[in-house]
Amino acid sequence: MVHNVDHTDTGTQSVDRALLLLQRIGACGDDGGTLAGLVADTGLNKATVRRLLLALIRAGMVEQDDDSRYYLGMQLQVLGAQASRRPNLMRAAQESVMRLGQVTGDAALLTVRRGANTLCVMREEGSYPLRSHALVAGQTHPLGVGAGSLAMLASLPDDEIASVLAAITPVLADRYPRLPPDELMRLIERTRTDGIALNPGLVIDGSWGLGIALHYPDGRLAGALSVAAVEARMRPDRLPDLTRHLRAEAAQIETRLARTAPLKG
Amino acid sequence: MVHNVDHTDTGTQSVDRALLLLQRIGACGDDGGTLAGLVADTGLNKATVRRLLLALIRAGMVEQDDDSRYYLGMQLQVLGAQASRRPNLMRAAQESVMRLGQVTGDAALLTVRRGANTLCVMREEGSYPLRSHALVAGQTHPLGVGAGSLAMLASLPDDEIASVLAAITPVLADRYPRLPPDELMRLIERTRTDGIALNPGLVIDGSWGLGIALHYPDGRLAGALSVAAVEARMRPDRLPDLTRHLRAEAAQIETRLARTAPLKG
DNA sequence: TGGCTTGGTTCATATCATGAAACTTTGTAA
DNA sequence: TTACAAAGTTTCATGATATGAACCAAGCCA
Questions:
Q1: What Pfam families does the record point to (chains A, B) (predicted)?
Q2: Would residue A6 count as lying in a domain?
C-alpha cells in the first residue's frame, strides 16, 4: 500500500528506493549504517530495506561487516573512477574549487541541482582552522538553502521558482525554521540584484556562505560555486575580495564547460 | 514472462537490472552507451532499459547528453569518493599496486571475486610501451579466467570450485574457447603446486599474466594481485623476479588488511 | 528470568514492473 | 519532396514480482 510520490517517476519504485539507500549509507559517514538506522532514515519497511541491501551487496555497491553494519562498496569506487574520466562539471571545476579553497583559506564548494534539491558534489577544505562543516560532499538540501543553492534558485525563471517553492515549503517549515518561503523570496530578490548569493548564517547559526551560479554555454544551469566560512570571515570588508575570486573562478569554469558537450536535464 | 535466474536473488529483479546497466555503461568507455547498445548488451527489453535509465538519471547515477548517449553520472563520483574514505581492500592495496606497476614496468592489477565472476577494481599502467590491455578496471570475467582470477579460484575449497565451474561452463564454451573446464582444472592443480597462478596467454593471445591470491586474517578470500604483460616480458628467466615482487607486495597488503575489520561475504 | 532492542526471514497479497506495440524523431536515399 | 529505415521514446493491459505485517532469533540489561 504505497500511494505517495508524484507520477514523474513511475515503474521503478524499487530502483529509486535502492538508490536512495545508497545515498543514505553514504550520508552515514565512516561508521556505516545499521539496518534499523536506514529503516528510520528512509521510512521504508525493514524487510524491504534488507532485500534492497542484499541486491546492492550482490552488485558490490554495498558491503556488510561482521558487526552487521552497511558501508559503501568497492564497485562504487570503480564506477566513480570511471565516471571521473569523462569531461563534465566536476572535471571542469576541480582545479578552480581547489584553488578557491587554498587562496581564500575557507571551504570551497561545488553544488548541483537535483530536482527541487541541491547536492554538494565537491568540497575543498580551506586552511583556516575554524571550519564550517555545514555542508559536506554528498549532502543534500532543498534548493535555496545555502549560498550556492540560493544562487541556483535565483537564476531560475520565476515560474520554476514558484514550483520549486511549492515543493519544498513543507521541508522548510519542518527543518529550516529561519527560512520561511517569504524570507527565501527576499533573498532571491537580493541575489538577483547583487548578482551573487549571500547566506548570512540562516541555515546554521554562524555559518555564512557566498555563492554564484554556473551555466552551460546554452544558458542552462550547471551548478554553483560557493565559499563557506564562519561569520567572522564574512565581514563586509572581506566580501568584495571573496566576490572577485568567486567571479573569476566561475568564469574560468564556464569557459571550460564551453569546451564540453552540455547534458540533458 | 521472465523465468530465468536462480533463486538466490529474489524480490529485486529491477534493482539487479539497474545495477547491471550501470556496469554496462561503465564498460562502454568514454563515449558512453546508446540505448540500442545497452539493449543488445543486457538482453533486456528496450522499454525496460529506458525506464531503468530514467530512474538512474533521476538519481544522478547516469547522465544523458544531447546526442542521447548515456554516461555515468556525478553522483557516482561523489559516492565513489565517499566509499574511498573507508579502509578496505582497495585502500590496503593502492600503494602496493602502484609500486608493483612502477617497479616491474608492467600493468599491475587488483581483482576481487563477485560470485562466479571476477571484477578488476584497480589497474596501474606500467611504463613498458607495449601494453596488454586485456584487463581494464571495471571489467568482469568468469572466475578462473586470467591470472589473478585463476589464483582466486585455485584458493577455494574443492566443492566450491566445482559449483563455480558448473556455473561458468556455458560461458567458457561460448567466449573462451581455449579454456575448457578440464584445462581450467589442470591450471588450478598447477597453481596450487606453484603457489602462484600463471596465465600463458590463454585468454587473449600473447597476453600473459602472473597472479597471487590475497586473504583476510581469518583466511577468507579478499582478492588477487596480478601482473599482466606481453608474452616476451614473461619468459621463464623473468618469472622468479616477478614472483618475488608479487609475493612481497601481497604480504604487505595482507598485513594492512589485518588492521582492518574483515567483511562478510 | 523476562522484557527490550536489533538483525533477519517468511509468505499471502495486490502493486508494480514488464514488454509488445505504437508513436516520434532523425537520417538518408531516391 | 517523399519514402523508407533506424533509433529513441511512450503507452497500457497483464501477471509476475516486490511488498510489509507478522514472525523468529540473538544479544543485552536489570
A1: HTH_IclR, IclR_C
A2: no
A174 and A249 share one domain: yes
Distance of C1' in D24 from CA in A4, Å: 31
Check if residue A68 sits with its Cβ under 7 angstroms from strand C. yes
pLDDT tens, A106-149? 999 999 998 899 999 999 886 665 555 556 677 889 999 999 99
User: Is residue B130 pLDDT above 80, yes or no?
Assistant: no
The shares of helix, strand and coil residues in chain B, as percent rounded to the nearest 5, are 50, 20, 30
Q: Residue A13 above 50 pLDDT?
A: yes
Grid cell digits, residue A29: 559517514
Residues in chain B: 265
Burial of B103 (0-12, 13-18, 19+ CB in 10 A): middle
Instruction: Say whether pLDDT at B194 is over 90.
Output: yes
Determine the pLDDT at residue B181: 92
Distance CA A15, CA A5 (A): 14
Alpha helix locations (H) across B10-122?
13-27, 35-42, 46-58, 74-84, 89-104
Would you state the pLDDT for residue A134? 58
Q: What is the pLDDT of residues A161-218, one digit of tens each?
A: 998 999 899 989 988 988 999 999 999 999 999 999 999 988 888 889 999 999 988 8
Provide, in whole angstroms, the distance separating residue A173's CA from nucleotide C14's C1': 35
Sort out which chain B residues have CB atoms less than 8 A from A76's CB and list them.
Answer: 76, 79-80, 82-83
Question: A72-104 as b/e, with b when 16 or more CB fall inside 10 Å?
Answer: bbbbbbbbbbbbbebebbbbbbbebbebbbebb
Phi, psi of A245 (to 5 degrees): -60, -45
A77/B85 touch (CB, cutoff 8 Å), yes or no: no
Closest CA to A232 of A97, A130, A127, A102: A130
Flag whether A263 is in a domain.
no
C-alpha cell recorded at residue A159 = 515560474
CATH number, domain of B27, equals: 1.10.10.10
Contact B90, A77 (CB under 8 A): yes
Residue A157 contacts by C-beta under 8 Å, 6 or more apart in sequence?
none
User: Which among A18, A71, A138 is the nearest to B78, CB-wise?
Assistant: A138
Domain end marker among B80, B114, B136: B80
**Cell 536506514 belongs to residue:** A38
Nucleotides of C under 7 A from a protein CB: 5-11, 15-21
**What is the full DSSP assignment across A105-129?**
SSEEEEEEEETTEEEEEEEE--S-S
Chain centroid to CA A52: 24
If DSSP codes are grouped into helix, strand and coil, which group holds residue A198?
strand
pLDDT at residue number B91: 92
Confidence of residue B6 (pLDDT cuts 50, 70, 90): very low
Indicate the residue type of B31.
D
Task: Give the domain range for residue B167.
Answer: 86-258
